Structure formats: C-alpha cells, structure tokens
Fold this protein.
Amino acid sequence: MAKVSASILACDQTRIGEQVLEAERAGADLVHIDVMDGVYVENVTFGPQLVADLKKTTKLPLSVHMELLRPETFLPMFAKAGADIISFQLDACPNPIHMLREIRRAGIKAGLGIGPAYDVESLRYLLHHMDALILMSVEPGYGGQPFEESVYEKLARAREIMDETGCRVPISIDGGVNAVTGRRLMDAGADILIAGSSVFQADSITAAVKELKQL
Ligand code: DX5
Ligand code: ZN
C-alpha cells in the first residue's frame, strides 16, 4: 500500500485546514508544504505561521519542502513552527551536508530534494546524513505541471546507490503524481507519493486519497 503525502499547494487556499482534515480522514500519511521564495522559483507560497497553525489542526507529520535559496536562513523559523521533516533542494544550497546536519540538530528529519534536471549520483556522499529523499518529477515552482518520465530512471539509480551504500531512506516522488503515474512509481520502488492536484483538485478529496493509498 502506498504512503500518500498530500501537497497543499493545490488546495483552495481559503480552506486549507478543512481540506487537510479531509485528506487525513481519508488516510493520507503526511502533509506536504511547499515553501517558495520568489527567487529560487518564481512563485511565492507559505510561511511558518501556516505550519504552526496546521500543527494544531492535524495529527499528520508536517513535511516542509523548501523551494528557496539559502535554506539555512529559513531553518530556525520552520523548526520553531513545528515542522517534522524539512527538505531543501540540492542545487539551492552550496553546503548540503552542513544543512542536513543543522536540520537534524534541530530535532527534525532531514530531507533532500533533487530536481528533474539533476542527477542522483551525489547521493552516495549524502545519504548517511539524510532521513528522506524527494525526487522531483516536475520543476519546482508550480503544481499541475507535466510529469517528467526521467524520474523512473533516477528512482532505480537512487535505489541502487542505497543498496550499494547500505543507507536506505524513504523515497518520495513529487510532481504529476496521479493514479496512473503512482501505480508505475510504486512498481518502480517509490515509498511515498506526494500528490497535489490529483488530490485537492479532484471532485472528491476522500476518493482521490483512497485511490492513491490502494496503489
Ligand atoms: C512543486 C511542488 C509540488 C507540487 C506538486 O514545486 O514541489 O509539491 O505540489 O503538484 P502536483 O501534484 O499538482 O504536480
Ligand atoms: Zn513539493
């Protein structure tokens, strides 16, 4: 059975709390919160106040996905807000080992996101500092973008590197995940499906979460 991380970027922004609760009741495993700065990506999204408020709303772990430059400067405020997992983009941070250590030092699971244009080879040097991996199948910035098929190859390679190094961390796939791509991703060894549009833009959030969970 798939683990589902519901990405609130695709929520009706005036109803985030109630839509997250519906996803939780339907069986979602995590809440995925994309934090964008308008610099690393064009878009601007959520701040620490939303994380703090969601912490009071849902029992699900809050996974903050930093799609921004200089993630280290944002770490303290999202740690204080109650993030359970914090991931940042490999190409947005010149000292990723330092950043992963700082996240762990704050008592938070440390994750790394890798965009569709970048390879996964450096995971060999990073995995033992990591608790989570996000392989992105769309460019960071927006929901609803077309799915990049190259993620299958990277998923297979990431798993190989994990086997070779003996460091296994859960692999999430982020972007364009729906029942069709999700099925193939699970077959290819994904652990967590991060889904925005296919959950929150669906006619029924409940039915959409249940469908993904059954993959
Ligand atoms: C994109 C975000 C994703 C986004 C995925 O920058 O990282 O989490 O919500 O959206 P969908 O599922 O609509 O492709
Ligand atoms: Zn994301």
Residues 32 and 73 are 20 Å apart (CA to CA). The chain has nine helices and eight strands. Residues 7, 9-10, 32, 34, 65, 67, 138, 140-141, 143-145, 174-177, 194-198 surround D-xylitol-5-phosphate (ligand 1) (CB under 6 Å). The mean pLDDT is 98.
